[in-house]
Amino acid sequence: xxxxxxxxxxxxxKLDQLDRIKEERNLTYGELKQVDDIKAVLFGTVRSYGIxxxxxxxxxxxxxxxxxxxxxxxxxxxxxxxYRDYDPTRTTPTTYFVRYFKQxxxxxxxxxIHKLSQYDAANVLKIRRAVAAYEEQGVQWxxxxxxxxxxxxxxxxxxxxxxxxxxxxxPIEEACELKSRIKTPEESLAEKESQEALIHAxxxxxxxxxxxxxxxxxxxxxxxxxxxxxxxxxxxxxxxEAKRKVNSCITHINQDRRLVEQFSVKTYKTYQNTxxxxxxxxxxLEEQFADCFSEGTL
Length: 298
Known about the structure:
It contains 14 helices and no strands. The protein has 298 residues and is mainly alpha-helical.
């Protein structure tokens, strides 16, 4: 086993123990904190790999300076959805999670760079399956053959081939799970209710200064969020201070009960857990995990 596999092995064992305790009684504050710390250490075993993978897959594109923070958050979310399915005795953490991280990065690029719709992404998958089927049989395919096999028009096949092969687009994985960009009436109503909840939280829980920084970051009149560097320049403060102001506002609005009920807070809380543990604490826990494994105490 690698060091990362050993950390996962011991960490998952400890989480299983705490789960059994939770079935009998409520966990104490110390035990809850221990759960958070263990999860943070487990994510730490693949975090650097995920960031390096993101840099490799996005190096051809001009992206905002804070895109890797967003990608790290998205990778943390999918990590905490999947980590209990990982078996450290079978493979390394990076080998297991790489496909999920690639999915996150690909979806980020499609949403922010390529602007592919659900229809486009589904067509890419159809074309790729048809090409794979012909190549397995050793058949040299043509655009007309792909059109017949997929049921798509020749024009759509040609444009899709351009998307998928002529361009240097990132791999389109799990594309069928992408939501359509055209809102249904139900989605429009939910969006309106969400906006009302957010406005209420902003008015009730933030200071005028925090709200000012937050609105600059959101950049309502622009196509994307305003970089922290630009906010810092406009406010004549450091980048660190600009981030602190925005994060303070976000923290306060997440304390609003109505907002918690309106939105799924799993995303925020999951990512929040990855930030609680300090680097020195992480190192200590890693050493303790390794010691436990070597001593066979679990």
